[in-house]
Amino acid sequence: MVNPQRYQSIVDGYLAQMEKSVQEFEDELARHTAALKDMARTRNRGGVGEEGETGKDHRLRSRGSDRRTARGPMIFDDD
């Protein structure tokens, strides 16, 4: 005969493990979110970040704001 208590204990064990995994994930997500918010505050202040870089990181600038392309096309007058 099937023992329902045995299966219930197996299910309870899986459920406990899943709850633990979800809690660990939520904790890690909260840490990363806090780190990103801190990085954004540091960048907006123009201060120095964790790695010693200034908040004005030009590597992340969009290509459209590049000085070479911001001048527009050159116009030649044929007089």
| Class from helix and strand fractions | mainly alpha
- Helix amount, in percent? 55-70%
Number of helices: 2
Straight-line N-to-C gap: 103 Å
Low-confidence stretches: none
Q: Characterize the main sheet.
A: none
* H and E string: HH
Shape: elongated
Mean pLDDT: 76
Count of β-strands: 0
Strand content: under 5%
Radius of gyration: 28 Å
Describe this structure in words.
The chain has 79 residues and is mainly alpha-helical. The chain is 58% helix and 0% strand. The chain contains two helices and no strands. The chain has helices at 4-45, 67-70. The longest helix has 42 residues, at 4-45. It is elongated, with a radius of gyration of 28 Å. The protein starts with a helix and ends in a 9-residue tail after the last helix. The mean pLDDT is 76. Residues 53-69 have a biased composition (Basic and acidic residues). Residues 37-79 are annotated as: Disordered.
How do you describe this structure in short?
Residues 37-79 are annotated as: Disordered. The protein is mainly α.
